[in-house]
Amino acid sequence: MSSQRIEVSYCRICAASCGTLVEIVDDRVTKVVGDRDNPMTRGFTCVKGRRAGELMSGPDRLTRSRRRTPDGGYEPVSVDRATEEIGARLSEIVAERGPDSVALFMGTQQAFTTLTPFVVKSWFRALGSHKLFSTMTIDQSAKWLVPARMGEYLGGMQGMVGADVWLFAGTNPLVSASGGDGDGLLVADPINQLKSLQAAGMKLVVIDPRRTETAARADLHLRPRPGTDAVLFAGLVQVVLERGWYDEEFCAEFVDGLKELREALAPATPDRVAAFCDIDRADLVEAARIFGTARRGRVTTGTGVCFGPHSNLAEHLADTLNIVCGRLLRAGEPAWAGNALLGGSAPTARVAPPTRTWETGFRSRIDGHGTIRGELPSSILPEEILRPGPDQVRALVVSGGNPMLALPDQRRTRQALEALELLVTVDTRMSETAQVADYVIAPTMLYERADHTALMEFFYPEPFAQWTPALVPRPGEVVEDWEFYVGLGRAMGLQMKVAGQFLDMENPPTSEDLLALVTSRGRIDPEALRAHPHGMRVPHPGSVVAPRPTGDTQRLDLLAADVAAELATALAEIDDVALSGDDRFLLVSRRLKEVINSLGRGVTGMAKLPYNPAYLTPGDLARLGLEPGDEVVLTSESGAVRAYAHPDATMRAGTVALVHGWGSLDPDAGPEGGTNVNRLTTGRDALQPINRMPRFTAIPVRVRRAQQA
Ligand SMILES: Nc1nc2c(c(=O)[nH]1)N[C@H]1C(S)=C(S)[C@@H](COP(=O)(O)OP(=O)(O)OC[C@H]3O[C@@H](n4cnc5c(=O)[nH]c(N)nc54)[C@H](O)[C@@H]3O)O[C@H]1N2
Ligand SMILES: Nc1nc2c(c(=O)[nH]1)N[C@H]1C(S)=C(S)[C@@H](COP(=O)(O)OP(=O)(O)OC[C@H]3O[C@@H](n4cnc5c(=O)[nH]c(N)nc54)[C@H](O)[C@@H]3O)O[C@H]1N2
Ligand code: SF4
Ligand SMILES: [Mo]
């Protein structure tokens, strides 16, 4: 007899953590709908979340771990056996060459399983290796770099509620549910949230070459030539300073280098900036006026800014705009209190000094790169593996990521991953990375594990927490990600520590115990959450931003020497003439609603198409003599790929977009199964200093019709 039940839970495919009602028939997830009783997400879901059942039990779901066979195929292996074998090989490698010969790469999906990041990092710390990598350094690590160079204001930043302006640059929250850092309002149900903010009087300015879903709602949309954000923000700051639209009082108290910055920005006149960015001078000044004369609201940036040339400088200048306009919380204002489960220090109106961690501590032998928040830049990972040397990386563990598609220069990445003595990935399917791995460990997926929202609470607009039990039994022989890492630690004889506590390696805690342990400094007990299956509004403690301690003089440094040098370089390029020519385009990044990075391709009901098209304006398509769907070849300095050209009127003329996370390992594959954009990018040239961020947007390419066979 078949059994049917409906359970309350929340989705864990992206940061929105949408409340869901899950229909389960015979222990399988058959339907997911939004939970209207979830006070944060109020019934909102997206197509990805509604298709979680297919994601969990589709044909590509791994329910047993695999081991590579000598002929290059795969055979099933029990997770205990795999863990022992991997542990033994890692121990050998460490004994022979030291812990730095083992690297860890942390991907996007590990962040949506609360326990994984805690436990995987605990395993890695116990191992003692410095070779820690994550997607952050191929994403928005400019956001780590800015406070590390200028210092960080510890009072918190203004939020969207009560804002009379918001400026989004290079982010499309209506698709990505991201919206840049620092405000959770546009994470779940972004369109309705944005509408109500606008109805309440918030002016919206968007800087994006594409007329995105978000830009279409803007009061003012600047559509610059891609890759010009650093200069554009230099222009905005210049206008705000020259017109006196900044907060003198805040600057006098908390800012150093304002005068020097003003002088350094002298070349960034509205005329020259507008010409370089290919926007109207009047729009530039108007954007500065709307932003600078408002009372509250911030600039937030996304990947479009952090992927471009001079990305670290662009992010620095975007943040500078917030700072000079004083868009930070002052002593006595209500403090941010979203850290319900995790806890943390009380906001205070003072500045923490720059950390510049890459200048001290561990240095990689690859160009002497140092660390940011304990991580090395991911774009050096292939060199770490390929270049011989004393601490050459010989083994790599990948946690919830797919570097084979995500890293720049796929050819080089493949060469590196195949040169390893040992590659292990923990993944729910045979990702492109799994296809070259020695072991693929099959983990549980959402609804198969208990969880709470500790890691995502930053994204809620108000203090909120939710807990979910596992709803369905584990299929096949999967384990929770964290269980694999504890097993590995045990096999290697390591003593692991989570949230300051030593784990009993022989009798590890349960998931529930660990979920409680990681919240030991929070304001609420996860036990209390069980009484609130739809989630719980956590009372605001009523705290306000504490005043600056007497005698404290630390200030934000707007123009450190390296920042000044980058600014001078960027402004010296201002009169450069852009590439032009009939088939010359700038390749830009964008995201799709129905997939998240490489996840969702091939899942029934998720991705709309079986491939990722090359989006061009209808005008450019006609100019190239192309019909919709024609096959084109995109050629950059680093490689060439084939794709199907699709018209998209929201694109900027002269640009072509190809979404990342698609394609295969086959360098000769046609476009029918998707195209890996990272065959056009490079991890070795045009990189940013410090975080070695590659360029993922504004890449010069040629677009031509593919030769007919
Ligand atoms: N549905 C869905 N959601 C996702 C993801 C996904 O793949 N799908 N990925 C998740 C991840 S890992 C991340 S990091 C976030 C990212 O979240 P976002 O940063 O919001 O990513 P996008 O939606 O691609 O928005 C980037 C915007 O930058 C614009 N852009 C491109 N080049 C430039 C440029 O040179 N200058 C400027 N100013 N803009 C430019 C693009 O047109 C695009 O609209 O989204 C997360 N959410
Ligand atoms: N050219 C170009 N390159 C880019 C980007 C771009 O826009 N353009 N974007 C960059 C950005 S912002 C990012 S974040 C990276 C993305 O880089 P990654 O995070 O490495 O890529 P994902 O495709 O998100 O990989 C997630 C993997 O986790 C697996 N997975 C799903 N659920 C689970 C689970 O429960 N447990 C485990 N262990 N695994 C699971 C999925 O099957 C998938 O293989 O790519 C970067 N690279
Ligand atoms: S936006 Fe979609 S994928 Fe993200 S949590 Fe909500 S339902 Fe899941
Ligand atoms: Mo990302």
What does this structure look like?
The chain contains 22 helices and 30 strands. The chain has 709 residues and is an alpha/beta fold. Strands 5-4-17-16-15-6-7 form a seven-stranded mixed β-sheet, covered by helices on one side. Strand 6, helix 4 and strand 7 form a beta-alpha-beta unit. The mean pLDDT is 95. Bound molecules: ligand MGD (2 copies), iron/sulfur cluster (SF4) and molybdenum atom (MO). Molybdenum atom binds next to loops.
Q: Radius of gyration over alpha carbons?
A: 25 Å
Strand order of the largest sheet: 5-4-17-16-15-6-7
Count helical runs: 22
Distinct small molecules: ligand MGD, iron/sulfur cluster, molybdenum atom
**Percent of sequence in beta strands:** 15-25%
E-strand count: 30
> Sheet with the most strands?
7 strands, mixed
Poorly predicted regions are none
Helix content: 25-40%
Structural class: alpha/beta
How much is the average pLDDT? 95
How many angstroms separate the termini?
Answer: 56 Å
Apparent shape: globular
Brief write-up:
With 709 residues, the chain is α/β, with parallel strands linked by helices. It contains 22 helices and 30 strands. The strands form nine sheets. A seven-stranded mixed sheet has the order 5-4-17-16-15-6-7, covered by helices on one side. Strands 26-28-27-30-25-29 form a six-stranded mixed sheet. A four-stranded parallel sheet has the order 11-10-9-13.
